[in-house]
Amino acid sequence: MRLDKFLKVSRLVKRRTLAKEVCDQGRVQVNGRPAKAGTNVSVGDQLTIRFGKKLLTVRVDSIAETSRKAEASQMYTIVSEETLSESSSDETEEVS
């Protein structure tokens, strides 16, 4: 399944167009590598998503074309959730 669709169906991101934009900005990694919206996602893959000052790492547990709200949270397991400090985000911006 495409990465942007997985992010939307699993409700990690609210809309698919927003998921595509997040991927295109380089804020999503699949198994430690930067990923584009069309990257294939499989069960067992590890996704790292940067939301502002939050870094969320999840493991893909299942894939479904559609899901209800109650089923969406069962599609992934949160591995870690970090809050980024301002100094580390400033350093990242300077390197870019």
TrEMBL record:
SUPFAM superfamilies: Alpha-L RNA-binding motif
Gene Ontology molecular functions: ribosomal large subunit binding; rRNA binding; tRNA binding
BP terms from Gene Ontology: rescue of stalled ribosome
InterPro entries linked: RqcP, S4_RNA-bd, S4_RNA-bd_sf
Annotated ranges, domain RNA-binding S4: 1-63
SMART domains per the UniProt record, alphabetical: S4 (SM00363)
Presence of keyword tRNA-binding: yes
Alphabetical keyword list: Protein biosynthesis, RNA-binding, rRNA-binding, tRNA-binding
Domain of life: Bacteria
Biological function: Key component of the ribosome quality control system (RQC), a ribosome-associated complex that mediates the extraction of incompletely synthesized nascent chains from stalled ribosomes and their subsequent degradation. RqcH recruits Ala-charged tRNA, and with RqcP directs the elongation of stalled nascent chains on 50S ribosomal subunits, leading to non-templated C-terminal alanine extensions (Ala tail). The Ala tail promotes nascent chain degradation. RqcP is associated with the translocation-like movement of the peptidyl-tRNA from the A-site into the P-site.
Family the entry assigns: Belongs to the RqcP family.
Subunit structure, as described in the record: Associates with stalled 50S ribosomal subunits. Binds to RqcH, 23S rRNA and the P-site tRNA. Does not require RqcH for association with 50S subunits.
Protein name: RQC P-site tRNA stabilizing factor
